[in-house]
């Protein structure tokens, strides 16, 4: 280019200055044609400063080569997206004579992307990502769609494991159809591309995954890729970058079929978020996903440390939110079996956190009452957890102890637990009486009252037939035995007979004790003003 033709100075993003012939450039660029339309007769040199030219000096130089080569350029996957962004920025749309303008030529090349090699697509995608201009979004989508299409075909054709290499072809098909191939090898055939796509930003990964979901790719494979990406990126990421990465991972899992995402995976993501200040929206999504699969969790999963500033050891509020998410799904999805699993899990959790001296009564009670009563067949585990809690929290008032006992359904306590409670000084006396009365009511429904017979004359509760007949006449004491139905108490079943007789005796003792308690309660009501201690007046049950 002769010196006299260099009548325009162009500063490109402060990177480099070019001396160009404005007449040549304006033939192809509508932007320059508008800019210099009114100054075509101006003398001297002009200067143009670009602050946001896509691709910087490299992109501008590529555009210049096209202009000075009479509308021809060597466009290939390594510079296609750079040339296209430059063409769109300079508005190089109108054809010149018989030559297509730069934008049209790049569009034709882009339409051939389906014939590119795998490595060419990755090179183009890297360049697209580096441009960081709005005009590149359409090209990025085309690249990502092409990648997903290749991966879908690869998974259907059972491709061989690939290494991350720009020399590899877009897919390598397996010719090995041996039925003895291991599951591990089979899975590696679906994950060979993980390493190749680690250069993607979280934004592009999100776009990629959305495209994968639309194309019905295996959700388990997608989840594996997201976790692989997160782990690889975290090694060099800043705290802010880690937040963006894990938020993207959570958001993408939220769009998947959760039946394909193991509960263990979700708790693994939760552990990663503990030290990060992620958005409330992403955190809510994660908790909702975990809550919906709470019946698959283990006790170790739930033992999440409390956040900074909270005195108690484990994050009880988090577990309450999990429970809320689980119960919010309704009866159509929460079956009785699933509900019982969660109830058992929560009882184990309560027992684990009960010894924590910093655990507030309100939090303990909230956990105890969060599960519907129908989900528990027995309240024994919860009773033992309450026993531990009261043993540690000796400073609790009588009112607070009564509140805790409100979480118990006394009718679902076993006889053993009821007996233990009746002698447990840590529990309020009112709860002790309530437990025994409820147990008595339960026993009356389960037991059948019958007179003494010769079949049971060995019972410790029936010393003689005359005594039994006398008791039958005056109605003051009835012999209570388990309803035996068609039990065979022959000599071949002595162990069962002994067991039933033992139960007879225990039931009798319980009923005697309950009657005594009721008498004492009546006396206390009459003598309330005298100030006698109710606890001292309670009779002691013989063990």
UniProtKB/TrEMBL annotation:
Look up the record and name the pathway of this protein. Protein modification; protein ubiquitination
Q: Would the keyword Flavoprotein turn up in this protein's UniProt record?
A: no
Which residues belong to any copy of the BTB domain? 6-70
Membrane topology, as annotated, equals: Peripheral membrane protein
Is Iron-sulfur one of the keywords UniProt gives this record? no
Output the SUPFAM superfamilies linked to this UniProt entry.
Answer: POZ domain (SSF54695)
Q: Protein name, please?
A: BTB/POZ domain-containing protein isoform A
Species for this entry: Glycine soja (Wild soybean)
């Amino acid at each position: 280019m002769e010196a006299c033709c260099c009548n325009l100075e162009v500063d490109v993003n402060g990177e480099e200055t070019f001396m160009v012939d404005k007449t040549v450039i304006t033939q192809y660029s509508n932007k320059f044609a508008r800019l210099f339309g009114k100054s075509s007769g101006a003398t001297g040199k002009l200067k143009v400063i670009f602050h946001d030219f896509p691709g910087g000096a490299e992109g501008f130089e590529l555009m210049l080569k096209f202009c000075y080569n009479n509308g021809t350029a060597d466009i290939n996957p390594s510079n296609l997206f750079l040339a296209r962004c430059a063409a769109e920025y300079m508005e190089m749309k109108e054809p010149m004579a018989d030559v297509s303008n730069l934008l049209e030529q790049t569009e034709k090349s882009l339409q051939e992307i389906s014939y590119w090699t795998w490595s060419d697509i990755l090179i183009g995608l890297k360049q697209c990502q580096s441009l960081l201009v709005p005009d590149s979004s359409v090209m990025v989508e085309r690249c990502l769609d092409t990648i997903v299409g290749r991966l879908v075909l690869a998974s259907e054709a059972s491709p061989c494991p690939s290494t991350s290499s720009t020399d590899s072809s877009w897919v390598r098909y397996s010719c090995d159809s041996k039925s003895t191939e291991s599951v591990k090898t089979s899975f590696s055939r679906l994950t060979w591309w993980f390493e190749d796509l680690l250069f993607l930003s979280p934004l592009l990964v999100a776009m990629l995954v959305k495209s994968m979901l639309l194309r019905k790719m295996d959700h388990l494979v997608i989840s594996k890729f997201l976790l692989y990406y997160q782990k690889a990126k975290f090694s060099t990421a800043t705290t802010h970058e880690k937040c963006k990465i894990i938020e993207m991972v959570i958001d993408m899992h939220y769009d998947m079929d959760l039946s394909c995402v193991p509960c263990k995976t979700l708790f693994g993501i939760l552990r990663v978020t503990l030290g990060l200040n992620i958005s409330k929206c992403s955190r809510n999504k994660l908790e909702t996903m975990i809550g919906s699969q709470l019946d698959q969790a283990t006790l170790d999963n739930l033992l999440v440390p409390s956040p900074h500033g909270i005195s108690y050891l484990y994050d009880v509020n988090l577990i309450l939110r999990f429970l809320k998410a689980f119960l919010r799904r309704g009866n159509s999805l929460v079956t009785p079996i699933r509900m019982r699993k969660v109830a058992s899990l929560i009882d184990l959790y309560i027992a684990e956190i009960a010894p924590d001296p910093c655990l507030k009564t309100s939090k303990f009670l909230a956990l105890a009452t969060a599960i519907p009563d129908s989900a528990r067949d027995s309240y024994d585990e919860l009773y033992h957890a309450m026993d531990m809690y009261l043993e540690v929290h000796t400073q609790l008032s009588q009112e607070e102890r009564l509140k805790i006992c409100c979480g118990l359904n006394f009718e679902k306590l076993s006889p053993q637990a009821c007996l233990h409670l009746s002698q447990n000084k840590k529990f309020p006396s009112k709860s002790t009486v309530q437990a025994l009365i409820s147990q008595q009511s339960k026993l009356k429904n389960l037991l059948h009252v019958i007179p003494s017979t010769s079949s049971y004359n060995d019972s410790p509760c029936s010393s003689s037939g005359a005594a039994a007949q006398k008791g039958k006449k005056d109605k003051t004491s009835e012999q209570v035995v388990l309803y035996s139905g068609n039990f065979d108490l022959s000599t071949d079943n002595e162990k069962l007979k002994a067991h039933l007789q033992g139960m007879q005796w225990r039931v009798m003792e319980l009923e005697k004790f309950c009657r005594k308690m009721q008498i004492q309660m009546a006396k206390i009501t009459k003598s309330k003003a005298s100030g006698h201690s109710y606890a001292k007046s309670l009779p002691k049950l013989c063990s």
